[in-house]
Amino acid sequence: MDEVAGQVGSQVGRRPPLFTQVAEKLRQKIRDGVVVEGERLPTERDLASRMGVSAVTVQKAIKELQREGLVKGKRGSGRFVALRTERKTWTVAVLLYDSIHFANPVMSHRLSGIQSPLEAAGYHVHYIAMNRRRADEADASWLASIDLSRYDGVVVLAHQAETSQVHSLSQQLPVVWMDQHCAGDQLMGVRVDMIGGGLLAAEHLASLGHRRVALLNAGRHVAACQEQHEGMQLYARRHTGFEVCWLNVTHSRDHEQVRQALDQVFIGDERPTALVCGAHDFVPLVMNYFDCLGLAIPRDVSLVSWDDVLMPPTVRLPLTVVDIDSAHAGGIASEVLCKLIDQKPIAPEILESQVKPAGLIVRESTAVAPSR
User: Fold this and answer.
1) Where does the record place the HTH gntR-type domain (predicted)?
2) Of the candidates 281, 271, 206, which has an alpha carbon nearest to the alpha carbon of residue 245?
3) Positive or negative CA dihedral for 258, 260, 193, 196?
């Protein structure tokens, strides 16, 4: 047990308090497996001697670890490192990248889908907003800012993230990754079928006679945007004469960017007869743009949106949408995480539903392609 000790007395003059430093040193030994599960700790007097601090300081540190569930006391036998199954914190973290907003109704549904099953299972849910500029650092220093000992597991909700960072996280506690490709088989992920959604949109428009369509989305390097395009291109490769114009902007609510992107294809005689919006945020801007050009929806141009959400009053007609059951996808993530935390097998039907198929709801914003 000598490995559990180490001098901290030289840090007496520093903050945080000395007992907190001692607790962190012991905590790290437990995390790293230097002190194994079920192993008995030395007495407080022995630890104090080895670490160069007072017995009172060690006593306070041990109480902190007991409060966290890392250490268990047994009457007449001393204190032991708790078994992993005994040290649940009953708290789960949801890491949100700063490109994901609570105000976004799609994300709101997804977060609700994540939170409700976890709370029903007895967990508290903590949301942690990650700053993109920090999260992209190669050394993953942002992980150091999170006290992982407070959590039993993590849901990482990110359109983009460094795979290496999430792999590093998964070495320390159970992780489920949403909305992003998982490199290798080590990470458990839940993703919606954006390729299938793009394919459905293309099939629907082609069935109405549209041959040249545009796709507008934000973030060329975002996996979901790439997959929307891939799905529509998949249809185009299978059916000669169907063309997809990919318009990509940096921000979906930047009026000028959206206008400039649309100008590339909708100014001129060979304009597309249909537009697919890869996010519902685009719809009000797009409708205003077509109004300015004197183009009526769906008479002159058909419009397909993504996600069946409540639109603002300025959206004057019911939209045809690629529908994603965001709450259901979030629920799958929570179910998988609970299984991982409890080290229970995951049923095949859960694994098979990880990629949630997209559906298409046809309404009044799409119609037969206009004759030229």
Assistant:
1) 16-84
2) 271
3) positive
